[in-house]
Amino acid sequence: MKKFLFFILIPICSWGQPNCNFYLYNKDTLQYKACKTVEYVPFYQYTKQYQEQFDRALKICPYFAYGYKAKSTAYLKSGDFLTWKYLIDKAVEYDTLAYIGYRGWCKYQFFRDYKGAIADIEYLEKKYNSISIGYSAGGEYHLIVAKSVCYSALNDKNKAIEVLEKLFTNKEYNVGPYDYYQLAVTYFQVQDYVNASKYLNKQSEINEIAENAYYKAKIAKINGNDVIYLAEKNRAIQLYNDGKMLFDDYTEHFNKVYLATIIKE
Amino acid sequence: MYRNFLLILLIPFLAGCQNSIKNLTTTTKSVGDITYNNTIDKKDFTLCDSNNIKQYHNNQKGLEYKGEKIAIIEEFSQNYVPVKCSNCDGLIRIRFIVNCKGETDRFRLISMNEKYEEITFNSKITKQLLTICKSLNGWIPKKIEGKEKDYYQYLIFKIKDGQIIEIMP
Fold first, then answer.
1. Shortest Cα distance, chain A CAs vs residue B168, angstroms
2. Which of A207, A229, B104, B152 shows the greatest Cβ crowding within 10 Å of its Cβ?
């Protein structure tokens, strides 16, 4: 029963504000005390006050993993890979299962460290031996999709396809908002236009974006279908102008296509 | 006696624990703040509100540049000359301020190898990156609550064999 509760609680206390009672339940009074000091932090992540509040928590408990993760965020967002890595490694060292997936995602998202991201995600997969390993920090990508994207970036397109096709056959998996698009582009890159079209159409059904229409235009052009090519190209431009494209506040999605590229097509 | 003996035994362990926590005291008002340095920064670079410099992601519009990021990528692909060198793999971050008029200054650089270890890149690479970075003139001032704001922006260059292979964010 205790083990079951533990696994249930892991995701809850992983990346967001932890539930301090979780530590108390595990009789870890030091982490509980540290946690209580940061239950309410009325400062922005970047500020000296925020950082100092977590410094005080870490003085109480030097192995308070969440404290390191919380401190690391401002460094991540400001592109300071050196300090971020030091802090997030501490979080992973003291609570590996809670933070290694997050670290893997951030390695990919902010620093395009594809190999590093794959290593962290595969570590989790081996530990859990299931697909229940979590999502990206923003929730748009399952970590296995992120792994596929990393393989694609490393030009291992077949592996990227294999990972996603396998994931999509898992009945427990709920398809994410850009999953079909990412797989479609990978198929396009290996010149499998039949499967690329299949997944572009699936993407249209769940969440239409400019990039999706752009690739449909490219395939129509390859097939010599000028009417569809022009229609899809114009639709891509329209979708882009309507703000329906891949977008992230901090970084760029993999396989993002710019408006200038669509117009030039 | 037994207590004192235990304490002596524990001293190296406790000292080791303390040393393992790197001193990351934030000396500036916020993480990543860049203070004026009269030896490297422009004297005539002015800010609308030096007490309230935003971050590039504060208005939820990401990187804002005329012609989008691809215009920046094109600037670097046209002007950066790859440098033949060994051990030239890793990331270089250039952080700077875009003021409320879209002008830039206070460029600062950090770099690392593929193991996230701080390194110094060949100056033929970093000088080029800084020069091109300083020449970029399409930055769009961030509009927050109806007003143009000063903000911190960064560009990270992924370098492989002296060539730029990706630009972030």
1. 7
2. B152
